[in-house]
Task: structure prediction
Amino acid sequence: LLTVTVFLSTLTPKFYFALTVTSSFISGLIFVFEWWHFRKYGTSFIEQVSVSHLRPLIGGVENSPPAPAAFSAGENETGRQNMPECKVWRNPLNLFRGAEYSRYMWVTGKEPLTYYDMNLSAQDHQNFFTCDTDALRPSDTVMQKAWRERNPQARIKAAYQALELNNDCATAYVLLAEEEATTIVDAEKYFKQALKAGEMIYRKSQNCHSQSPQHEAQLRRDTNVLVYVKRRLAMCARKLGRIREAVKMMRDLMKEFPLLSMLNIHENLLEALLELQAYADVQAVLAKYDDISLPKSATICYTAALLKARAVSERFSPETASKRGLSTAEINAVEAIHRAVEFNPHVPKYLLEMKSLVLPPEHILKRGDSEAVAYAFFHLQHWKRIEGALNLLHCTWEGTFRMIPYPLEKGHLFYPYPSCTETADRELLPTFHEVSVYPQKELPFFIHFTAGLCSFSAMLALLTHQFPELMVIFAKAVSIVS
Result:
């Protein structure tokens, strides 16, 4: 202690100043390097070195899940070309306005659909159910105006007017099934009438579709009506518990109109097959539609993850896995979960019931909160049915964000995450719902530490320069006390 005291008494204020300036400069360089490494690789260099090299030397075990393998080099590029940013899609599992959305509003007093969402549906109806030849049939002329009406009662009144002019007006029955029917049973009755009328009109259009471009347009319209009605009838059967019947109707529809894959009827089929617990059939559907040339969806990605999790989730334990490492099947399940989470990061909080659900909108934004709501609303029960699946998801999903390159625009397994999803989701989802946003990467501890060290050293250097004698006395006092 005497030697240390004599040594400190010989040091001048210039030495202390030089020491603090040097330490401030070095900690500043470390901070700049740490920040650059984090911006480029998404992780702290010091933390990475300590975890990868130092921890094993002192007997530690790394229990973080392995990084997912690249599924396809072409998937990124194909996605960039095929997926326009923030394109809104029709929800394949959208509910019935009269039998479901309206009933919710009667009970809660809250409007489940936004004006923007309903306006998109009005545009869909005009595109699907109208054509240039409507003027030739008075009932179709009335329905063309009906789809443009904003008031629901005006639309329903117009549908009855169309039926007075033509009792076989399929689109009028469609409108009544969607908006006037207050139960699924009533909606199914209207759709059965629409199917009878739609098949008759479709056969007539087939016989004369080659006569002129107008007849071709009429055939496309009548095809759209027939496909829409059959799909909604299958959904009615699913909701009424006749699941095998619904599956058959969906399969037949997909075989009859194979070119209409953009309608995503296979997503309705996947949900119905999961309800039947026909997992082999689910895998067969996924093998056909989980392809890099097709736009991905939360249903595709998370169903694939669910099937892989099903193989290992019942016996999965984080503690056991951290000691013995992950098996091949567990690695595949974790990779599938990471893939799904990167595609749509909003889904896990709904599946884990960390965030409350609302009725899904009629349109969804792929990779957005609206798609996550729509997926979880129908598929949460399927995850709950498989023992341990939600536990495996809970243990692994957050690890995805440590592996996605930073900044997030770079992407990893998929094209970059669109920056406009939050704005679009706020237009699609009701105001009483708190829109989920893409999870941001938090700064690692060592970046905060080096920033604090740099600031503290700079402050000491400034104080030493301004009050050299006082800082010398303070340094000696601290050394003696320590």
Observations:
- The two ends are 11 Å apart (CA to CA).
- Residues 60-84 have pLDDT under 50 and may be disordered.
